[in-house]
Amino acid sequence: MATEVTVPVLGESITEATLGEWLKQPGDPVAVDEPIASLETDKVSVEVPSPVAGVMGQHAVAVGDTVQVGAMLATIDSGDGAAAAPAPAKAPEPAATATPAAPAKDESGAGYGDQPGAGTSDSPAALSPSVRRAVLEHGVDPGTVKGTGRDGRITKEDVTAAASSKPAPAAAPAPAPAAAPAASGRGEERVRMTRLRQTIAKRLKEAQNTAAMLTTFNDVDMTAVIEARAKYKDLFEKKHGVRLGFMGFFVKAATMALRDIPSVNASIDGDDIVYHDYADISVAVSSPGGLVVPVIRDADQMSVATIEKTIGDFGKRAKDGALKMDEMKGGTFTISNGGVFGSLMSTPIINPPQSAVLGLHRIEERPVVVNGQIVIRPMMYLALSYDHRLIDGREAVTFLVALKNAIEDPTRILIDL
Which residue among 128, 132, 163, 366 is least crowded, i.e. fewest CB within 10 A of its CB? Predict the structure, then answer.
């Protein structure tokens, strides 16, 4: 009996997804709740778990196909995949004892006739799932493979050895197609955009077409923050179990500036302006599929330690593709740190429906004038892109100055000044 696996509910207003990867192939053993496929939505990748234990059946869709919520993805055949492997081993034994005349035929035939497994290895039922997959991958005829497993069964290693023992036929067709690219050295590869990348492109272009976007710059002396971090980083990590970075300072300083300049934390809804008395900070982090922006809820109520823990968790789960859909929704203001990749200056694009985004950049030692003296200081450029329909230049500059003051004098963050 086969159980159908369907596309699960993916979240509010999301009705379809793209099949990104099959995690289980036909014949593989599957446990309950074990992921069998990965779906790409507009925001994150979602793993599809198996509802039952058994053996992976046939795939109903191919990688890259668009599937609707509730559509069938595959089937799970009944039976324990782990226990299915030994079962076929018992089948050849009665066959061998029930036909004692078989050895006589073998003696008059080829040298592998004394293997009960060899005569039945062409049948899928006689091969374990891993062996069947290896046979398909290597293009090996199981009837020509001598089994070294129990009762003469063919193992995965037998298939691999058989494939490696015939290099000439496999290599023969390869030179012909390989010669063409080598001659010109101008190869091309066409790869379909992932759903996440398509969504990023559409939303960013929409922001450019909709918002009256403008960017203003300032720079900040990072000396005080760097000294505070160097002085307390060991004690901080020992007490809170997370490293003290720069993002905690910037997020906390940004929430204070947003409180003072509420229009930077607002959004436009039709003909209305929506002001928020909370600060949900979207933090741009890298994932294998592209840039994602999970949201730190109520960041204005958090300590620097809690902010650092949250960002660290987001970063780790983004790399693993384990961010949840709800963690990507909302946000009233975005911070993007291009400095981790070496960016000196940029004009970040607003993340709709938000009205502003702060861009951080690399820290670089530069000569600056302090108290009439030229000194070398670790400086960082700040960039605030904002929607000029809602935020005036005066408000944008005032926001950056408030942020700059808090970073250059972290005591302001402590005493909420």
Answer: 366
